[in-house]
# Entry
Amino acid sequence: MAEHALSSPVHPSSHARNALQRFLSATEVDTRLLGMIGALAIIWVGFNIFSGGLFLTPRNLWNLSVQTASVAVMVTGMVLVIVTRNIDLSVGSILGLVGMVMGVMQTSFFPVQLGLGLGHPLIWVLSLAVGLAVGTGIGALQGVIIAYLRVPAFIVTLGGYLVWRGAAWWVTAGRTVAPMDSTFQLMGGGPGGSVGAFWSWVVGILACVAIVVGLLLGRRQRQRFKFPQRPVWAEVVLGVLGCGATIGAVLIANAYPWPTRIAANFAEANGLDVPEGGLFISHGIAIPVLMAIGVGVVMTFLATRTRFGRYVYAMGGNPEAAELAGINTRWVTVKIFMLMGALCAIAAAISTARLNAATNALGTLDELYVIAAAVIGGTSLAGGVGTIAGALLGAVVMQSLQSGMVLMGLDSPLQSIVVGIVLVFAVWLDTLYRRNKY
Amino acid sequence: MLDTSTPLVEMTDISISFGGIRAVDQASITLHKGEVVGLLGHNGAGKSTLIKILSGAYKRDTGDIRIDGAPATINNPRDAKGYGIETIYQQLAVADNVDAAANLFLGREMVTPLGTLDDAAMESKAREVMGRLNPNFRRFKEPVKALSGGQRQSVAIARAILFNARILIMDEPTAALGPQETAQVGDLIKQLKSEGIGIFLISHDIHDVFDLADRVVVMKNGQVVGEAKTTDVTKDEVLGMIILGKVPPGATPGPGAIRE
# Structure
């Protein structure tokens, strides 16, 4: 032991017994996350076989990404809620209410009452701002009741589940609001709501640069404090895998062309010649997917790089210790619920834009999908444990199950049964994993 | 021979009730610079409750707290830390799910110029402090949950001394430790004392405290039985105070003393 302290620090991977252990230890990857990626791969390949090759197509994967976006945005907030030993049952209802409010804002309040006129370029951003304000406000109200009045989160948000769903009805007395503002609609995806091949490449290359720079910065930081370094080959493997996955995703998004008719209309409108076999215009990455990824990055940053995130996890691990350490735990709780409300508003924008309508049933049952995605993604209801990346993966797993079963032509009652069983099974596996780890 | 300088801490006539039970009843206690005061008593004697009032975990019903002779307002743990009061709790108040560095700096994280957490700097500082305290400690990347009781306790102690405490409260600091680690904590207490820090040691076991303390204060049923310099009384006499509430000739009786 003594020579360890004196000589330059040694990375733990040099003590590993076999090749797999050495690989896992050297790359410092989260084995749990790796297991989830493996499970997702099995699900995808399985569905591809059983649906006769329909699952692993650019078209289906692109649709899958868009369908996941709304739940993915909300699950990043739900992780923080559950990590602090709370729960939010009201997210689907908040989504419904905020969607209605934004619908009314862009179809009547701003264009008619304020006289901006339909199609004004500011309408989408003003509507979104109002939606964010309403969502954050609802979150703040619930958070204050939970943190300062000490009513359990389960009860407050169960009440909220009923109240906000009812309130969504009151906004227009139950009428559906449609169509949405044309710019606002871009947040829902579709041919117009995707960034196209060129910008998809720009996004992909920026992401690759970020991965490489991140690895280099991490290395320099460890050097500065003389911490053990990962072996160089492990860094290269991580970089290649990360960039490879990013480029693969861009290739898939770009391989899905616009539907022929829309492409033909576009060609006609822009005076382009339609070549033999139709015009190939790539969708590229959909805007709601970019929004979800952006939210994921920001939330990961919040959770891991800021005091706020540190406090969230400490409160989940030992609320008394956090309080005694001088953390204002009540205010942190309020902030978590405000964040959750704001994320519901973003999800509401994606959902209403995608449907091109706001209905008072929008987001029904979403709270259960969001909670299930967080839990499948490794968030522990006992608190203190959970990652944003894991929860996002959980959302993809949930949506893959849904979409795969639709492709296989399973009846919808059977779909619910499968999703329910998978949820319980996943949590059981996770329990086993954790029991073996500590 | 009583120390006549202004006490570092002076708690006077402190009372607190929980649902009709007087957990602490008119208790008074003082602490000077560089002094170690052992606070003794059975489980439920009120010693932890009294000290939690000083550390801000509980709010007193009546009584005064003076720090350096000036009245102090302590309503929560943050206020207490503002006065340089650091506490190491009996039930190992660490967050199990985060690593040692995160626990050491909990509530007072080091940040980069951009305002983000500077984990590398915190880990580096944690390695330095833990190296002084427990040279065998090297599991910095793991959640505290994975550590032994003694290692967790060294994290808790490192946490308290990291921020230059002036007043240190240790509630059963060695209860979860083995003999070697207990000896280490003893050495550490002497070192901190020589740096002029005032220390309250709370224990129900006289052996933990008697050799380290300059003075002992004994509580029973929420009241102070009496106090004595450890040079003026024997361990058996202090035991008599703890068990029977009987005050020996070398001690000063308090409100809870049995009058014979």
In short: Chain A is about 70% helix and 0% strand. The longest helix of chain A spans residues 196-224. Chain A has two domains: 40-189+287-437, 195-285.
